[in-house]
Amino acid sequence: MNREEAKRLKELSYRMMIDVLQMTTEAGSGHPGGSLSSKDIIAVLFFKIMRHNPKNPTWEDRDRLVFSKGHAVPILYAALIEAGYLDRSYITKLRKFGSPLQGHPEWNPSLMIEATTGSLGNGLATKGKGSLIGEWVTEFHGKPLSKAELEKLLPQLEEKHIEEMKEIDVN
Q1: pTM of the predicted protein model
Q2: Phi, psi of 38, deg, nearest 5
Q3: CA angle 16-94-118, nearest 5°?
């Protein structure tokens, strides 16, 4: 990473910090400390490492962030605002009735949130399940599959799972 890119990421991180403080102050609740401790890594992930597209948030080949630290979701919302998934006006809508910005991430694919999390450790189970399914599909099909291919294969996988469960002796 060159100096200009490092400077850009530092500026993004700073703006997200300001956004988190504004969000939690406006809401009168939240956990700014957890969000602020994550600001630099979220800036690097969102704006340097991860492949995603706010114009196509469900893009099949996007990277996924499993956000297990649910109480620190204001930093995720700040990144979504900076990346263009949300309009800046949402900064005042944290924890408001009817707002998509609640106190923990809630399933919303248009915001790259593919799992409701919050309970500590929930992200590990979510990611573990995805990894296990990926291994199972590869073993069953002989290669990793795209989401579209997986959707076609799901009925067969469900049958295989039912057959395997029948074979388990629970006595």
Answers
A1: 0.73
A2: -105, -5
A3: 90
Per CATH, the homologous superfamily of domain 3-120 is Thiamin diphosphate (ThDP)-binding fold, Pyr/PP domains (3.40.50.970)
State the Cα–Cα distance between residues 108 and 115, nearest whole angstrom. 8
- Residue 17 has a pLDDT of 97
Residue 39 makes CB contacts below 8 A (sequence gap 6+) with: 13, 16, 17, 20, 75, 78
Angstrom distance (rounded) from CA 119 to CA 103: 12
Mean pLDDT (whole number) for 117-126: 59
> Mean pLDDT of all residues in the chain?
81
Longest dimension (CA), the chain: 64
Give the end-to-end CA distance of the chain in Å, rounded to a whole number.
Answer: 58
* Residue 89 tokens, joined: 């006006």
Per-domain boundaries in the chain: 3-120, 127-167
Burial category of 30 from C-beta neighbours within 10 Å (exposed 0-12, middle 13-18, buried 19 and up)? buried
What's phi and psi for 113, nearest 5 deg?
-105, 105
> What single-letter DSSP state applies at residue 26?
H
Amino acid at 171: N
Phi-psi region of 99 (alpha: psi -120 to 50; beta: other; left: phi over 0): beta
